[in-house]
Each structure stands twice: as C-alpha cells, then as structure tokens.
Amino acid sequence: MKIFSLEGIDGAGKTTLVTRLSQELSIATTQRKEFLCESEFINKVGSKLKDVLWNSGDSRDLPDEFWLYLQASWHVLLRNSIYNRFRDETSVVVDGWYYKFLSKLLANGWESKDIDLQELYSLVPQPDVTILLCTSPQIAWGRKIYRPTELGLHSPQFSKRKLGQDSFMEYQSRSLDALKSMAKARNWYVIENADDYHIDELLNIVSTIISKELD
C-alpha cells in the first residue's frame, strides 16, 4: 500500500481536497488527526496524545521542544493506524503529515538550534508520495477562522505583536518557503499557484498523480 500526503500551509485546501477525493472518486482517504487501531492499548495512548496535541488550548507556556517530540510520536502512531485500517487498499491519501509542523519550526528560526530537525524526524515513518499545494497566504486568509497557533503564536517574531492578518501572512509565507525547500530536497510533486485552480481541476491533477504512482 502507498501512502500519499497532501501538504501545504494552513488554509491550503488539503482537507477539502481529501474529502472530495473520497466522495467523488472513491479513493481511500483519512485525516491526519484521525486515529483508529485494533489494539485497545494503542487506541488509549493515541487518544490521550491527540487531546494533548489538539484539544489542550493555545499557550506559549511550553517550548517548541515539547511539541516536536509529541508530533514525532503521533506520526509513528498514525502510520500504524493507517496500515491497520487500510490494509486491503492499494493506496490512501492523508491531508498532511508532520511537514507543516516542521515548516513552522523552520520559519521560527530553528536552523540555528542544536537539535537537527531533519535527523530527528528521519526516524519517523514517511509517506510514499507527497504533493505540495502552493496556496498563497493571501487567499488562505479568507478561507476560515484561524487559531492563535496558526497566526504565529509560537513564533518569537510575534511575541510582542498583535496576532492577526499581518502576522498570518508573514508566518505562513515563511512556512510556505520552508515547505518548498523540503519539496525540492525530497522530490515532492509541487502544484504551483494551487489557488488558481478550481477544485475539480485539482482533483484531476491529484488523481492523475496517484494513478501514475500506482502503475
């Protein structure tokens, strides 16, 4: 089975596209925050980890180092869950992996830290194929209401600035630059100016990539 990951900044349209792939093309899909395994123990651990990562509120009280190890652990469990749930499928598409989180750390200046992010996350299972949706932050801004973490809460540059549209544009632009660098280094598929395409066109592009990779 091949795992395909759609990547992009917050508001890039990853989850919307994954939902349409499932509904209209009957392609097996899942969301990055979904988790289910036959093991009661793993489900219990995964549920607690999910609550800490996404249901514990927004705060600067814990450092990035705390979250990066939790994210790594989550994606080990996610890979386990995907292989358990979709064992009879030839492929499954996920609305993201850890790359967006990693891009935000890089946007926050983690190149100068002693911890080698690329080396640390090389121990985490990777998708087989990654497709980057290059959506402009200007377009993404109007698509939904964002959490403080998506506006730059954990970025040192905004520690004394009001979070809002300006911080979102700056933060997400740096994140997109980091994702593009990863795409080049890792040979991802890249859909430039993804916001210029109608959703049906994106469906066709992504489904064509999937078919090509499965041939």
UniProtKB/TrEMBL annotation:
Name listed for the protein in its UniProt record: Thymidylate kinase-like domain-containing protein
Record domain Thymidylate kinase-like: where: 6-174
Gene3D superfamilies, A to Z: P-loop containing nucleotide triphosphate hydrolases
Record-linked SUPFAM superfamilies: P-loop containing nucleoside triphosphate hydrolases
Organism field: Vibrio kanaloae
